[in-house]
Design brief:
- This protein has two domains: about 5-205, no CATH class; about 225-315, Orthogonal Bundle (Arc Repressor Mutant, subunit A).
- The protein is built from ten helices and 15 strands.
- The protein has helices at about 5-20, 25-50, 115-135, 160-165, 175-185, 195-205, 215, 260-270, 275-285, 290-300, and strands at about 55-65, 70-75, 80-90, 90-95, 100-105, 110-115, 140-150, 155-160, 170, 240, 245, 255, 275, 300, 310.
- Helix 1 packs antiparallel against helix 2 and helix 9 packs across helix 10 (about 290-300).
- The longest helix has 25 residues, at about 25-50.
C-alpha cells in the first residue's frame, strides 16, 4: 500500500484552490505545502526500497507517549530489535556537523541550518521506549538511521563520530545496508512473532493523524474563500447545475459529482457538518429541493426538520 498524503497536505491543497491568486498569504501557504509534499515524496521513495527487506515495517507512526504526541517516518520490525528511520528529502550539499549538532544545507550558494536529525531520532527513541513500557511490552533494543531520499544530495561530515556517519544512508542503500545490519545480530530473539503482531496492531489502533487548523493558522476567514463546484477539466470554480449534471461555463465539460469535491473542501476547511442553505450558497444552487437531493445522496443528517437539519460530510479518505 502506498503512503497516504497527510491530512495537513490535503487541507493546504484545498486552501490554495479556494483563495485568490492575489491573497497575501498565498506564497507562504504554497511554500509550506511544497515542503510537506517534498517530505511525503521522500518518505514514499524510502517505502519503495524497504519493500526489498524481508522484515515487516510500519510507515507514518503517530503515537502519544503520555506527555505529548510523537511521529516516526518508518519503523522496521525484527525479533531482535526495532529500527527507526528518519527520512529527509533535502537536496544540495549537506554537511553534518557532528560536533556542534547541526545540519547545514547549501544550495545555489545559499546556506541554511537545520535541526540536527540525530537529536530528533534520539528523542523519538526515548518516546518510543516510553510508549512500549506504557503499553506493557517487554524492552527491546532500538536503533536509528537517517535516510537521505533526494538523489540530488551530496554528503560531507565534520566531526570524529564514525558511528553516526555509518547511520546516515542514501535511500538506495536501504536494502543492502539494513539487511547486513540485521544479519549482524547474534543470539536469541527478544520478541516473538506474537509480540510483533500485537505491537503492530497496538500502533495501528492508537494512530491519530495530525489535524491542523490551516484556516486559523493563516488567519483566513470563511468569507475569504472562493466557493463553487470545480470543473474536473479546467479546474474553474463555479460549475452550473443543470437538471442531472454540472456544466462548466468555460470549457463546456460536464460532471455528475463535482459537488463532492466542493463538500470535501468544506469538510477539510470548515467542518464535518453543513446545512442546506450553506450548501446552496457555496455551490451556487438556488433550489432547496435540488440541494436536498444532492446532500441526501452523499451525506447523513440529524433527522430534524428542514430548517434545523444538518448534514454530516464524510468524504476524506
Amino acid at each position: 500500500m502506498s503512503r497516504q498524503k497527510s491530512l495537513e497536505i490535503a487541507k493546504l491543497e484545498s486552501l490554495l484552490n479556494r483563495i485568490s491568486i492575489h491573497h497575501p498569504f498565498r506564497e507562504e501557504i504554497a511554500n509550506h505545502l511544497g515542503r510537506l509534499s517534498a517530505g511525503h515524496f521522500g518518505e514514499s521513495t524510502a517505502d519503495h526500497y524497504m519493500k526489498y527487506l524481508p522484515e515487516k515495517s510500519i510507515q507514518d507512526i503517530r503515537l502519544h507517549d503520555s506527555i505529548q504526541p510523537f511521529q516516526i517516518d518508518a519503523l522496521l520490525l525484527s525479533q531482535k530489535c526495532l529500527v527507526i528511520l528518519e527520512v529527509k528529502n533535502y537536496k544540495g550539499e549537506l554537511q553534518f556537523d557532528l560536533d556542534h549538532r547541526k545540519l547545514i544545507r547549501t544550495t545555489e550558494g545559499k546556506s541554511e541550518i537545520f535541526q540536527d536529525p540525530f537529536v530528533q531520532v534520539e528523542l523519538q527513541k526515548f518516546q518510543l521506549q516510553r510508549w512500549i513500557q506504557k503499553s506493557g511490552f517487554p524492552s527491546i533494543p532500538i536503533y536509528s538511521f537517517i535516510v537521505i531520499a533526494n538523489s540530488n544530495a551530496s554528503l560531507t561530515f565534520q566531526g570524529e563520530d564514525r558511528n553516526k556517519r555509518k547511520r546516515v544512508l542514501l535511500v538506495k542503500q536501504l536494502p543492502t545496508h539494513l539487511t547486513a545490519f540485521l544479519e549482524g545480530f547474534k543470539g536469541e530473539d527478544v520478541w516473538s512473532d506474537d509480540y510483533l503482531n500485537e505491537f503492530s496492531a497496538q500502533i495501528e489502533s492508537e494512530y491519530t493523524p495530525y489535524d491542523s487548523d490551516v484556516m486559523k493558522q493563516y488567519g483566513i476567514s470563511k468569507d475569504e474563500l472562493i466557493w463553487g463546484a470545480p470543473c474536473p477539466s479546467c479546474r474553474l470554480l463555479g460549475m452550473i447545475r443543470r437538471r442531472d449534471h454540472w456544466l462548466c461555463g468555460r470549457c463546456g465539460s460536464k460532471s455528475k459529482d463535482a459537488h463532492l469535491h466542493l463538500l470535501r473542501d468544506h469538510q477539510l476547511l470548515i467542518g464535518d457538518t453543513i446545512t442546506n442553505a450553506e450548501f446552496r450558497a457555496s455551490a451556487g444552487v438556488c433550489s432547496v429541493k435540488v440541494a436536498r437531493t444532492l446532500l441526501n445522496q452523499c451525506c447523513t443528517h440529524n433527522n430534524r426538520h428542514s430548517k434545523g437539519r444538518k448534514y454530516t460530510v464524510d468524504l476524506i479518505r
